[in-house]
Amino acid sequence: MAFSRYLIILALVTGCILPSGVQALWPIPTTLETGMTTLKISPTFCFDVKIESAPSDLRDAVAQSQYYLENDKLGRLVVGRGSNDTSALATARTLSKLTLSLASGVAAEPISSEAVKPLGTRSEEYALIIPADGSAATLTANSTLGLYRGLTTFNQLFYYYEGVTYTLLAPISIKDTPAYPFRGLGLDTSRNYYPVSDILRTLDAMSWVKINTFHWHITDSQSFPLEVAQYPELSINGAYSPQEVYTASDVQYIVQYAAARGIDVMMEIDTPGHTAIIAATYPEYVACSDASPWADFANEPPAGQLRFALPEVMNFTASLLTNVAKALPSHYFSTGGDELNTNCYANDYLTEQQLNRTGMTLNGALDTFTQTTHGALIAQGKTPVVWEEMVLDWNITLSNETIVIIWISSADAAAVAGRGFRIIHAPSNYFYLDCGAGEWLGDDPTGNSWCDPFKTWSKAYTFDPLANLTEAQYELVLGGEQILWSEQSGPQNVDSIVWPRAASSAEIFWSGKQPTGAALNVTEALPRLHDVRYRMVQRGINAIPLQPQWCALRPDACDIYA
Questions:
Q1: Which residue in 109, 244, 339, 487 is the catalytic one?
Q2: What is the mean predicted confidence (pLDDT) over 4-15?
Q3: Is the per-residue pLDDT at 22 higher than 90?
Q4: Which of 101, 168, 221, 393 can bridge 389 by disulfide, Cβ–Cβ 3.0-4.6 Å?
C-alpha cells in the first residue's frame, strides 16, 4: 500500500495533535511523518553499519543502542501499559535491520572529534526512515555525530509488552536538525563534590535528550577540587579531602566519555571573584580573605577575591587558566567574572598601593586583568566565555568573539545583544534548577532561596530565546542551558533535581518549534516528557515524577481545566 495512505502529518488546530506513541520523542524532530501500522523488532534485529573504517566510538554507540533496544522494556504510558496492543502485535510484521550510512563522499570521523568542533561547524542533522513492510530501516547523516543523534531518536520510538518490542507508528519518516548549536547543562561541583560516576551518569542522561555541552563549574570559593599539575597545592590545600579531587586522569576520562556521547566539556574557573579558596595556598593573592561579616564582601561565604590589580596575580591567573585549558579539547573556556564585590578592595592595602602607583582605577585594573587572562586563552585557540556582568557592569574591553552567559534575568539578553556579543541563555528566572529549596544559610529560619520560586519544567519550557531581540540580533543567540548550583545538592539528589526538568531547555534549543511550525506548548509536551522520565528510570536515572502515575497514563486528564 502506498506510503501516503498510512501517513499522518502532524496537525495543529488549537494545539498540536500527536499520534499515540509519538509521545516518545524528545526533543521533537524538525519534521515528523508517521503511520498507523504496528511493527515489532525481530529477535535477530541488527544494526548494519555501512561505513568503511567506522570509528570505534560509533561502533560503541551502536552497541549501546542495541543494549537500550533490548533492555529499556518500557511499557506504553496508557492504561494497561500496552495490554490492548496484543491483537495488533499478533499480526505485525517484523523489523530486522537498521542500516547506518554517511552521505556520499563524507569521511567518517570519530563522534568524539565531531562533538568538540567549534559551534556552528558541527553536523548533528540526520534522517531516519522506518518502512511499514518490515524492510530495512535507514539512518543517514553527514557525520558520525548526526548518526549518534539519530540512534537516540530510534531508541525512543519503541515500547515493550510481554517480550515484544514494537512501535504502532510505522511507517516513520524523520528529518531532524538542531535549531541552535549550543544546548547545555551546567553543574557546580565545588560547593559539594560529585564523584566521577555521578558525572558520567549525568552525561548519559544528557545525551538521551541531545544536550551537547557540559558546562563544568569546577572551582569556587568553597573548594578547589581540580588537580593542576603546575599548581598541585591548589587541590592539596583546597579540596575538601584527598578523595574529593578530580585528578588529571579523572578529567580526561570525563572529557572523553562526554565526547563519545556527542558532548563538549566547557570548563569554568571563575575569576576574579569566587576565588577565596586560593588563599589556602597563595594568601598574598587574595583580598578580604575570610573577612567578617562575609555578607559585606561576598554574595555567600567565605569572603575572598583575587587581588587582580597586582601583576603577579594577573600572571598567575593567566598561567592557571591556560594550563587547565590546554589539556581540554573544547574551543571554549569560561573565566566567569560574576558577582565581583568592590567592598573587598576598598581597604585592601596591596590593591590600593598598586592602584596609586599606576594611577589606575579598579575598573582599569580589571580591564587589564581580563585582557591578560583572555589574551592568554585566545593565544591557545580558546574562545573566552563570561557571565553577563563583564559586559553590563564594567567598562572593559572584550574580544568580539567572547560569548556571554545571561543569568541574572532573561531581560538582560537584549542589552548584551545590543553590544554585539553572542549569548547563551541561562536566566535564573527560568533555568536555575536550585531555586525554591529554601534558604541554605544558617540562623535564618524564615528565609527563602534568593531565586524563588522553584522553576518547574513547564515554567522553563515557556522560555522564548528570541524575546525582546531584534531580528538582526537573532543570530547572536547560540542556545542555552539549565544550571544546578550545589549549595543544597550533591550526588544524593542530582538525578531528581536535574531530571527530567533539564530536558525542557534541551527541546527549546534543539526543536525551537513543533514539526507543524507551531510554537512549543506545555500541553502538547507533557505526555512526551512523562515518557522521557519513565525511560530514564528504566535506564537507572532517579528522575522525579512529574505527576501521579494515574495522570501519566491518561494524557491531559490532569490539566487544570480538564
A1: 339
A2: 36
A3: no
A4: 393
